[in-house]
Amino acid sequence: MDDREELSRRFEEQRPRLRAVAYRMLGSLAEAEDAVQEAWLRLDRAVNRTEQDPEAEPVENLAGWLTTTVGRICLNLLRSRERRREDALDAAVVEPAVGREAAPEQRPADPEQEALLADEVGLAMLVVLDTLTPAERFAFVLHDMFAVPFDDISPMMERTSASVRQLASRARRRVKGVTVVPQPDPDRRREVVSAYLTACRGGDFEALVTLLDPDVVIRADAAAGPTPHPISLSGARIVAKAALGSKERAQVTEEALVDGGYGLVMAPLGRIAVVLTFGFTEGPDARITGINVIGEPEQLRKLELGVLDLPEPSES
After folding, report:
1. Which domain holds residue 212?
2. Is pLDDT of 105 > 60?
């Protein structure tokens, strides 16, 4: 096996982790694959440069070098995307390399694979990550999701470790969302929301009815409902039937914290589309009294979303 084949083999060993880093950074499998592709091209150039110039700095820690390289590529893309958003243009995409050698076993992104990745990361997490600034997202993903020490991240960002720590902390607060608003029987309310989603996914009409107050009301704005106009329905059996009409939507819906209460976020491939908020009766046998289905983009932007059960990060 020659040196290039060995380099390709070692790169392929790193590919799944690099793709995972890039996907969490960018929220798009196609962009993540292109970022990993660019990292391979830069690695190839770096190795060739070392072979031709004995004084060139060699790539000694391959995993660390590739993580740093992919991270910097993603940070530049996030910054470019942010600038384009400010200019009210479409989000940036990675241009494919032209006239350069492809990475070994390069495969195009496919919807099924992207759906699996989105499910692995969590739809609510992808939605909230997209609300962070590029610097916050970079620091949070590398440190909190991949345990990269702040001292290793700081040179990538050309910031001090203390500054990177602050960015990650600020991002963490936004990912967690506001503290759960004090309310009676919060565990029961979360249990009911979880059971509602399970029943919708499974098409369980009777289970839905048991979770709903007899006088429950569901309201959907024009962007979220099945008609071009807002709708309002009442009664447990009527609302349960309407909820089952969203069975397909339920497959790409996840529990989340919404303005301090328990709700649901529908986000195909991590792109927010609809949010559900709930009202409840009080007591240990709380039932749902109201469901608001929000799809209007302007209203969605006003919501503060958070991820439930976020693991605590390391201190390094």
Report:
1. 186-306
2. no
Q: Which pair of structure tokens corresponds to residue 43?
A: 């690695």
Neighbouring C-beta atoms of residue 236, cutoff 10 Å: 18
Domain boundary among 176, 196, 228: 176
Question: Is the separation of the CB atoms in 308 and 175 below 8 Å?
Answer: no
Residue 181 lies in a domain: no
| Residue 38 CA from chain centroid, whole number | 22
Distance CA 279, CA 216 (A): 9
Structure tokens at 230: 């807002």
Same domain, 157 and 191: no
Q: What is the pLDDT of residues 239-293, one digit of tens each?
A: 999 999 988 889 999 999 999 899 999 998 888 999 999 999 988 889 999 999 9
Per-residue b or e along 147-175, where b marks 16 or more CB atoms closer than 10 Å to that residue's CB = ebebebbbebbebeeeebbebbebbbebb
Q: Are residues 166 and 43 in the same domain?
A: yes
If one compares 175 and 102, the residue with the highest pLDDT of the two is: 175
